Amino acid sequence: MDNYYSNNTYNNFEDISFIGGTDFVIKFPFYSNGAEHNITGFSAKWFLAPYGQPDVRIAELDCESIEDNTFYVTIPESLTLFLSGGYIHQLRIVNPEGRTIRVGQGNIFIRQAIPSLYD
Predict the structure, then answer these.
(1) At a CB cut-off of 8 Å and minimum separation 6, what does 115 contact?
(2) Phi, psi angles (nearest 5°) of residue 77
(3) Per-residue pLDDT reduced to its tens digit, 39-77
């Protein structure tokens, strides 16, 4: 089976950590057999759920494509403003023939923002 994610480890994204209440972008470059894989005609969705609870979806966002082999998702600040702790995320792609593939899962740690004394 082709591996489409760039880290060459199927179903294993690198851990991500960021502060809630900020926009955050995740890029997913795709490769097949070690070479860039053209994603023209593909679509992708990104999913977020609490750690250990994949059946409790918190978010489902459409991905955009940049270049010929990279999808990205922008997580808006409004989504994470009141979140903190551990979460899992998955990426689902649909190829031009309509085949759906869950290409990976990883951990996201959202940190609570330190409140300002002046806002």
Answers:
(1) none
(2) -55, -35
(3) 888 999 999 999 999 999 999 999 998 878 889 999 999
